[in-house]
Amino acid sequence: MVTQFKSNGVLIECIQGNIAEQPDMAAIVNAANAALQTGGGVAGAIHRAAGPELEAECRQFAPIRPGQAVITGACRLPNRYVIHCLGPVYGVDEPSDVLLASCYRRALQLAEENGVESIAFPAISTGVFGFPLPSAARIALKTALDALPNLVRVKHIRFVLFGESDLRVFVEALNACTSK
Ligand code: AR6
Fold first, then answer.
1. In whole angstroms, what is the distance from residue 28 CA to residue 3 CA?
2. Which residues touch 11 (CB under 8 Å, ≥6 apart)?
3. In what order do the strands lie in the sheet with 27-31?
4. Model confidence pLDDT, tens digit, residues 43-97
5. Ligand 1 mean position to 180 CA, how many Å?
């Protein structure tokens, strides 16, 4: 199974790792809460590594709605930007598939607008927010693949999965989406 796909000069890859430890990426994406405060999972890891300055910088944008994304500096993280996305709570924020796709699309738009050449995403909504991983993976990858023709600045999109089985689900979805 291939874990990478290149098209239109853009590399899409899936790796196992910690989203807060991606020093080679210009931007990382936060699976945020509406208040843009620290929390568990991805938000906790990012805010802990960034320091309290990140919450302070986020305050001007809060609250955000499901499907929205905002961009801030990265404070003590080794990246230039953090793009904060509020994913849908599965079964509550509807239509959840449209709202989840909107997170990825808006994040990629913000990356383009800010000259970001590389961006790392976690699997938004698939932890506390309960989105089933296989459909979340398909939505994430399809939205990124659909955006490729419009990307000029972004050259590298990385999906960072916490666990080995989560990585496998993303790799299977990547192969399914790119084999047609
Ligand atoms: N790096 C990469 N992936 C991670 C990491 C990490 N450090 N930590 C967890 N994951 P979640 P959500 C995976 O819950 O579902 C927060 O408390 C995790 O296994 O972080 O969008 C916020 O404050 C899962 O697959 O985000 C919000 O209230 C995925 O990342 C709420 O949770 C997303 O898990 C957001 O929930």
1. 19
2. 4, 5, 155, 156, 157
3. 4-7, 10-16, 156-161, 118-121, 27-31, 81-85, 69-73
4. 999 999 999 999 999 999 999 999 999 999 999 999 999 999 999 999 999 999 9
5. 31
Which is it for strands 10-16 and 156-161: parallel, antiparallel or unpaired? parallel
CB neighbours (10 Å) of residue 53? 14
Confirm or reject: Cβ of 169 under 6 Å from ligand 1: no
- For residue 96 and ligand 1, the question of a CB distance below 6 A is answered with no
CB contact at 8 A, 132 and 90: yes
Pocket residue to mutate for ligand 1, from 42, 77, 168, 170, most atoms within 8 A of Cβ = 42
For the chain, domains (ranges, CATH) are 4-178 (3.40.220.10)
Say how many CA atoms lie within 13 Å of 172 toward its Cβ: 10
The rounded distance, in Å, linking the Cα atoms of 42 and 144 is 20
With tokens 């995403």, the residue in question is 121
Cβ–ligand 1 distance for 67 under 6 Å, the answer no
